[in-house]
Design a protein that fits this description.
By secondary structure, the protein is an alpha/beta fold. The protein has helices spanning 79-90, 96-112, 128-141, 159-162, 175-189, 210-222, 242-248, 266-272, 283-289, 296-302, 320-340, 353-360, 362-368, 403-410, 437-457, 470-475; strands at residues 2-11, 19-28, 31-36, 45-48, 52-56, 58-63, 115-122, 144-150, 196-201, 226-231, 256-260, 278-281, 307-308, 385-389, 416-421, 424-428, 431-432. Residues 156-170 and 469-476 have low confidence and may be disordered.
């Protein structure tokens, strides 16, 4: 089957192709076959994009998708609120059905916003059933992504039975037990040619000794899994120096995606140079929760380039375009601020909308480990494509000669008209078309009701117990 996207303003993010004020994109068998000003194709299904911008599907490189049923509950929360309210109070009350609902509807939300690939940081595996449900949710949503299987141990008496033993014969605190589950999930769900890839999210250095984390890195590499991990996102972690510890144990590498790094020391930034390690910047969470300033400048200087993550959907929305605009303007201000102290106006623009678009596409694909297949509208890559409708009142007058600027400065998730993943149309005319949307909403509503009932039964959100993570408490 052949599909032709016709007469769009094309932002290819491919330096050879560049931008086209009017262009066509031909898709064959899920692959981008050609991009050009007028391909002259007549034997294909045509998508009229004459009022639209065509761009690569966006990549969200850090999302706790399982939290979707708690959307917005942490809108005024900081790190202690998150630890108490989400990680220690709500997370342990999740059932497998809640993990499925969060990942399924959360992935649909991403697709609806033009995000065709996510890095799902799934660190709430209470038992094996939760892991199976989380992967199934992503798979059923039809999104491309990296499933980051969390290795944080949480006690449950179902581990042994679910892993083929008897109740009580498996200790989730033991790496051998967790390795059995990770291996099982890897073998059951992940093939070389699927939309989903397998990843590992090791324990954080704030809650596990470095030697234990090193063993988890070794497990990930034995399984051929990409590794993603929170690092240096809380000021007290200057005591921990996560990047320094990772470097000392030889754990940095081009298969590693670190998240935040807002409190890296200068020495730690230098340690990242040449390792291929990537970093996801999650500005809304970082600026809200007291996690420091988004480190776009440092990540640009010392790594292959920054990508962006939505992070906690319990606090933030999923609009990556608006997120990129926030990061762009915040980074511009930070670059200009030293001049303000000397009463000097900025002489040049420090960051451009093209930079911001790279964070969402090319850089995101690299960080997620899928830059060989997506991230740009390059012939031969898979057809993950987003069409932004720019013909309405709020976008009228946009500059067709600079569509990148129009995307970042003027558009938003509400402009996402059409989304293709692997050449398959999953959204058309502003509506998801590949799933039962009312059924998905019912699935999430059931989970939401259960979790909020549990919250009410236990005294409401954030009842203010002490943070009881032993290693964190000891070092803090």
């Amino acid at each position: 089957m052949r599909t032709l996207i016709s007469r769009a303003a094309v932002v290819s993010m491919d330096d050879t192709i560049g931008d086209l004020p009017r262009g066509d994109i031909l898709i064959e068998g899920g692959v981008i076959a050609a991009v050009g000003a007028d391909l002259g194709v007549t034997d294909a299904e045509v998508i009229d994009a004459s009022t639209m911008i065509a761009m690569p599907g966006m990549v969200d490189t850090h999302r706790h998708t399982w939290q979707t049923a708690l959307r917005g509950i942490l809108a005024d929360g900081n790190i202690p609120d998150y630890l108490r309210g989400i990680r220690l109070q709500m997370a342990p009350r999740y059932r497998a059905a809640d993990m499925y609902a969060g990942n399924y509807v959360g992935a649909l939300d991403a697709l609806n916003c033009g995000i065709t690939s996510i890095v799902d940081y799934c660190h709430n595996i209470l038992d094996p059933d939760c892991a199976h449900a989380a992967v199934s949710g992503l798979r059923d949503a039809g999104i491309r992504g990296l499933y980051g299987h969390g290795l944080t141990p949480i006690t449950s008496n179902t581990w042994g039975e679910s892993l083929g033993g008897s109740e009580g014969d498996a200790d989730p605190a033991d790496l051998t037990t967790r390795a059995r589950l990770a291996t099982s999930i890897r073998q059951e769900y992940f093939s070389a040619d699927g939309l989903l890839r397998f990843g590992i999210a090791p324990q954080e250095l704030a809650i596990a000794p470095a030697a234990q984390v090193a063993r988890e890195f070794a497990l990930a590499r034995e399984l051929g899994a990409r590794i993603t991990m929170h690092a240096n996102q809380v000021m007290v972690r200057q005591l921990f120096k996560d990047v320094e510890v990772l470097d000392a144990h030889g754990l940095l590498g081009d298969d590693v995606l670190l998240v935040h790094c807002t409190f890296n020391t200068d020495e730690e930034w230098r340690m990242l140079e040449g390792t291929g390690t990537t970093v996801s910047v999650c500005a809304e969470t970082e600026m809200q929760m007291g996690m420091g300033y988004p480190a776009i400048a440092e990540v640009t200087t010392h790594t292959p380039g920054p990508s962006l993550g939505i992070d906690c959907v319990s606090g933030n929305g999923g609009d990556m375009i608006s997120h990129a605009r926030l990061v762009l303007q915040a980074s511009r201000y930070r670059a200009d601020e030293p001049g303000y102290q000397r009463w000097m106006a900025p002489q040049e623009m420090s960051w451009t909308t093209r930079d911001a678009l790279r964070w969402l596409t090319v850089n995101g694909a690299r960080a997620a480990g899928v830059d060989d297949v997506v991230g740009s509208l390059t012939p031969g890559k898979r057809a993950d494509i987003v069409l932004l409708e720019m013909g309405g009142i709020s976008q009228a007058g946009w500059n067709r000669l600079d569509p990148a600027g129009a995307i970042i400065a003027q558009a938003h998730a509400g402009c996402v008209d059409t989304v293709l993943v692997d050449g398959r149309v999953v959204k058309r005319g502003g509506q998801l078309v590949h799933v039962d949307v009312p059924g998905a909403l019912r699935t999430l509503a059931d989970s939401h009701e259960h979790l909020y009932d549990e919250m009410a039964r236990h005294g409401g959100f954030i009842p203010q117990p002490p943070i009881d993570i032993p290693l964190y408490r000891e070092r803090a």
